[in-house]
């Protein structure tokens, strides 16, 4: 939030003095309503700025977590191939690890499909 929340050079206009007339009462009411609306708008802007800042931080850390997760899965997959290669050969080890990865992806996709369809189901989960 690099912008100031309130312009300090702009002074609020005080409502006219109460002389007992209906016109003065309405003018005071309008001035009070305008002041309240401006304060509410400033509060909403501050709240939106705080939420946007929190979402920006969340997106940054979630992206970092996703990058490290993918990196870990790649390393684990490579390690599994290297570990199996002395027993069954490089090609068979690669096929075994690829098959397990594809099976895990299919199972995960089926669970995701079930959860997605449950969103539109009238009975719920």
Compute the number of structural domains. 1
Tally of DSSP helical segments: 2
Strand content: under 5%
Please trace the helix and strand order, writing H or E for each element. HH
Helical fraction equals over 70%
- Helix-and-strand structural type: mainly alpha
Instruction: Name the overall outline.
Output: elongated
Number of strand segments: 0
Q: In this structure, how is the largest beta sheet organized?
A: none
Query: What's the alpha carbon Rg, rounded to whole Å?
Result: 31 Å
Features of the shown structure:
membrane; 2 helices; transmembrane; Phage holin family protein; transmembrane helix
Folded structure, characterized:
The chain has one domain. Helix 1 runs antiparallel to helix 2. The chain is an all-alpha fold and 125 residues long. The chain contains 2 helices and no strands. The longest helix has 67 residues. The two termini are 41 Å apart. The model has no long low-confidence stretch (mean pLDDT 85). It comes from Sphingobium nicotianae. This is Phage holin family protein. Keywords: Membrane, Transmembrane, Transmembrane helix.
What's the quick description here?
Helix content is 78%, strand content 0%.
Describe how the helices and strands are arranged:
Blueprint: H1 22-88, H2 90-120
Helix pairs in contact: 1-2
